[in-house]
Design goal:
about 140 residues; alpha+beta; 3 helices; 7 strands; about 40% strand; globular
Length: about 140
Amino acid sequence: MHNSVEETAQARLILSPQRSARLHVLLTYLPEDPLAVRMAFPAEFSLDGDATGGPGAEDIVWVFARQLLASGLELPSGAGDVHVRPAVGRRTLVELRAPEGTALIQFDTTDLRRFLWRSRLLVPEGEEHLHLDADRALAELLG
């Protein structure tokens, strides 16, 4: 059994109704953080003006609830910084809001469903509590 799920999905960053940019997004699920999924975007797509995207630049990683991603495949979901909603065809839109601006990323829904299915093989939905380590989480919070 694998210790995590990693999958690279091809996506499109929507720049305007007529323009978009293709990018690869690394989707990650870690059983030790069973309620969350991670999306890592290449540094050159940062909304932060300080990111150069050159060699050694770090990816931008967003962490949010696995359930939010799953819900957003069927119905518009989310509050705050992350929103997920179905789009025309077999597409899903993920909207990420930061002080620097908003990014709208379009995914093939099949890729997201496959990623979620693989994550549920590691930690079935409803069994996340069995993988939580409260002592470790508290130690991380207190730094």
